[in-house]
Design brief:
This protein is α/β, with parallel strands linked by helices. The protein has helices spanning about 5-15, 20, 25-35; strands at about 35-40, 60, 70, 80, 95, 100-105, 120. Strand 2 (about 60) and strand 3 (about 70) form a beta hairpin. The radius of gyration is 17 Å and the shape is globular.
């Protein structure tokens, strides 16, 4: 096998092993959030890090420029913590987390989201 072909094959293999390379920063941030959450009813099943655009994922709404503007995870029976990666969603306007078991501190990075209009985390 020619060296260039071997290199191409190895590169493709590495792409398959590293979902972070194939997604954008918004997808990476959402996938990081997903890894912090337990999801016993699989509501986040569509959050596939191998898809380049998280705008196709359930519970994620994007604007016409493919910016994530809404996360609607209310009443999803998820539990875990929030992390600083939410601060990467610079265009986020609405974050719904009610009727879940989200614990821990609210990440300070949420304070940097200038477009965040609504944030609901109500403890049952």
């Amino acid at each position: 096998m020619a060296p260039l072909s071997l290199f191409s094959l190895l590169f493709c293999f590495l792409l398959l092993l590293s979902p972070a390379i194939s997604t954008n920063s918004k997808g990476n941030a959402l996938h990081s959030l997903r890894s912090r959450l337990s999801d016993p009813t699989n509501v986040l099943q569509s959050w596939d890090p191998t898809l380049v655009n998280p705008c196709t994922w359930f519970h994620v709404t994007c604007d016409s420029n493919n910016h994530v503007i809404r996360l609607d995870l209310g009443n999803s029976n998820i539990y875990g913590t929030l992390g600083p990666e939410l601060g990467q969603l610079q265009h986020l306007q609405c974050l719904e987390l009610y009727k879940n078991d989200i614990r821990g501190k609210i990440p300070k990075e949420l304070g940097n989201l200038k477009t965040l209009l609504a944030w609901r985390k109500v403890k049952d």
